Amino acid sequence: MSSQPTDLRISELATLRAQVAAWRAAGARVVLVPTMGALHRGHLALVAEGRALGGRTVASIFVNPTQFGPGEDFSRYPRDLAADLALLSGAGADAAWTPEPATMYPPGFATRIAVGALSEGLCGAVRPGHFSGVATVVTKLLNQVRPDIALFGEKDFQQLRVIQQVTRDLDLAVEIRGVPTLREADGLALSSRNRYLTSAERAVAPRLHAVLSEVAAAARDGGETGAALARGAAALTAAGFAVQYLAVCDAETLAPLERVAGPARVLAAAHLGRTRLIDNVAV
Prior knowledge:
The chain is an alpha/beta fold. It is 40% helix and 19% strand. It folds into 2 domains: 175 residues, HUPs (Rossmann fold, 3-Layer(aba) Sandwich), CATH 3.40.50; 91 residues, Pantoate-beta-alanine ligase, C-terminal domain (Pantoate--beta-alanine Ligase, Chain: A,domain 2, 2-Layer Sandwich). The longest helix is centred in the middle third of the chain and has 16 residues. The N and C termini lie far apart (43 Å).
């Protein structure tokens, strides 16, 4: 395909499937990078990973209304398709799948995917219905693109685990891979929502990663997680965060842990002003 940004864009499902079929006929494998746009270096790192895997890389751009709850930021979520297409072109993506809302949710659409325990705690507890919306739209994207591999950033760690569960349970012929979180030099995880931060909030925001790292170090040393989590929550509150959750969880099941005896993650969500930040670190 041409390297011009406008040539990357595919907005009709029949065109997308014809392009993917042509790639497969030529012996290529296909990699999907699902996004909601407002792209940053983290997204482009996923595209670079797709290119490194030797396949044709499709980045989808769709702000999915069904994963936003009442009062959340769907209407103000940043959108700049022209800039996103230019970034994808520069990163070497082969196509940008930009479906219209009516393609994803046509009149009469009535199906939702509900995932069990993995989706019920953490973000699922404070954003009811969020992961049902995520699971449904990602399943549709996987069926539309039919990739061999789909790449997800580990910043949204619970989302990664939910999508892995869905693909196992529904026998979807795709490998779901997590890609490590890309960070600013001061530790702040890259996120499209970071652009909501004021300059004063941006100066405070890296404290979230610092506290998660402190909790992880304490848990790694064999201490009970309760005391470390209490200290961490107090530190975040003192820094100006409104903490939604801070937890040490099993890295596979996301069940909360009182003491770490295997692979684990420290996960948090907190508001800083109007901006909701999430992050996690491995223990």
